[in-house]
Write a structure and sequence with these properties.
Blueprint (H helix, E strand, L loop, with lengths): L5 H9 L4 E8 L4 E7 L4 E5 L4 E15 L2 E5 L4 E4 L5 E16 L3 H9 L3 E4 L5 H12 L3 E6 L2 H13 L4 E5 L5 H14 L5 E4 L15 H26 L6 E5 L3 H4 L6 H21 L5 E7 L8 H6 L1 H6 L12 H12 L10 E4 L7
Parallel strand pairs: 8-9, 8-11, 9-10, 11-12, 12-13, 13-14
Antiparallel strand pairs: 1-2, 2-7, 3-7, 4-5, 4-6, 4-7
The structure holds nicotinamide-adenine-dinucleotide.
Nicotinamide-adenine-dinucleotide binds next to helix 3 and strand 9.
Amino acid sequence: MQRFNFNKDIKAVVAGEGITRKILGYSENLMVCELTFEKGAIGALHSHFHEQQTYIIEGKFKFTIGDEERVVGPGDCLVKEPNIVHGAVCLEKGKLIDIFTPARKDFLEEECKMKKIALITGGTGGIGFAVAEELGKAGYQIILNGIDDSAAEVAVKKLQDQGIEVEYFHFDVTNEEEIVKSMNLIKSKYDHLDALINNAGGLGGRSRLEVLPTDFFRKVMALNLDSVVFMTREAIPLLKKSKDPSIVNYASNAAWNAGGPGAGIYATAKAGVVTFTRASAKDLAEYGIRVNCVSPGTIDTPFHDATKKKNPDLFESWKNNILLKRFGRPEEVASVIEFLVSEKASFITGEVIQINGGQDLL
Ligand SMILES: NC(=O)c1ccc[n+]([C@@H]2O[C@H](COP(=O)([O-])OP(=O)(O)OC[C@H]3O[C@@H](n4cnc5c(N)ncnc54)[C@H](O)[C@@H]3O)[C@@H](O)[C@H]2O)c1
């Protein structure tokens, strides 16, 4: 193993590939950290002036402490005197608790610098933009995705005018290759992700089943379901590096009432999102990644432009189907999403929240 200088290379030691650190608590004299290691992850050799006690909770590690090498597992405890050179290799995916005396100030500084980051697909307009504003105001740095570059220019300016840090990435979420390429670029620029908001979606038109064009079917599924699956898969490595990672997906009233005329495929895709939310919540729970879903009713956004233009009276009449006799506003969805990704919702996962003004009660 290579020896690292403590001050210069501390990142390689504490936040290396496959290692996640959480500060569980600290005072000036004491700090308790939980570290999770993937199999093969290396805590490079280093030394520091703190005394360190390491308790192995899960897995198997080979530790080097001074001239000694020791393989340890659950229940073992290692005491490292101040300034002794030490490091570890994880032999079997595991977890350990480090207790430092006194507290590691560098860890605290790093923690303070770690701004929360949210990625919002289709965030240049409609509900997605309201989410960008809401999370931006809550202190998140925003990664904004979209395909409409002129809308993006306006959206980015509006966010920056409010002091929100934002970067725009053009990619089409219906295209798996573009997702992979863009997410790789995002991974090279950002070291973690706290919230993935799988917002992009849409009706894509209407078609009766008898005459359903195959291309149309694939397009609607790709936009509303495939995109959620591929974005989730590609975001996992960055989410795993967050202290409190979560994902929010979007269903729709259509998922429950099977959609309006010709919207059956959209409804089917959104019903798939509900089950995928629950399935991914189960799959990702071991990494502490919470996955939830919002299910909006009729929210007044460009989503409804075609109907509004073609038949404004019909659109207005939809209010009669809503208990509160009005359409929802994008910010009324955004505020629920802000709650879901926050620590206030830390015990909520695999849940679907209806935001529909009582639309399903009439
Ligand atoms: N507005 C509603 O009444 C309503 C109801 C239920 C569910 N939803 C869901 O809420 C989410 C947001 O809808 P909205 O009302 O803001 O719609 P919208 O049409 O106003 O916004 C959708 C956004 O997604 C972007 N987008 C479209 N295709 C994309 C692609 N291939 N790649 C990347 N971005 C793409 C658009 O440019 C736009 O910014 C969608 O998933 C939608 O299905 C909306």
